[in-house]
Amino acid sequence: MPRIATLGTEGSFSEEAAAEYGNRFREVKILLMDDLEDIIGLAQGADLGLLAIENSLEGSIALTLDLMKEMKSVICDEVVLRIRHSLVGSSDLGSVGKVFSHPAALAQCRRFLKKKLPHAELVVASSTAQGARLASVEPRSAAIASLRAARIYGLKVLAEDIQDQDTYTTRKVPLLGDIPLLGWLFKSTSSQRTRTNLVIMLTPRIIKTGEDMAEVSRQQRERFDKAAAGDGPFALPAGSGTGP
Length: 244
Description:
Layout: E1 3-7, H1 13-22, E2 29-33, H2 36-40, E3 48-55, E4 59-60, H3 62-70, E5 74-75, E6 79-82, E7 86-89, E8 98-101, H4 103-108, H5 110-116, E9 121-124, H6 128-135, E10 141-145, H7 147-152, E11 156-159, E12 169-176, H8 180-186, H9 210-228
Parallel strand pairs: 1-2, 1-3, 8-9, 8-10
Antiparallel strand pairs: 3-4, 3-12, 5-12, 6-12, 7-10, 7-11
């Protein structure tokens, strides 16, 4: 039976990802830890460590990647988990005066909080699951967490899918120790989006009269017409056109 180490407490998104990955095996044991180095180092007899390395809003998680490199870990697989934040609590939405959650979750649900709970106190927790646990014992409070955390801590679901972007995902990878051959066997290739930068150069001109403005406009129109016709240093690529 594989033993998978991951970060957080019961009801966290990391535990959810570990459980999802564990469905590939007949049986699995999930070890919840609170230290990245213990997970990467496969402490407590763990066979695999599962950690988040990237999310679609904030990009790569540098601390995790740096530790993986330092400890010579090998990525053997990946899990892409869609993050769906919910507001959960023991009271009604109108009576919520305090919201617990991880700082990233609070930031990712900023619009909902501003619109629905503009006067609520936002309190940082170590994880979304920890936020749910705190909300379960404090009256008139709520947490931003998963539906699974709501079930575990006996909380009502006050609102679902409250994240600002519907396509927010987190990429988590199971790790092996320094075993190059196994790492190569399990590696995968994925496409990567390339960012293109547009550089705009401005030339300041002093306009004193209406005639000056007309002359500058005439010159710019002439340069644009040449570019559209494929002539001059700013010629447009063939087939790009100037219309919609």
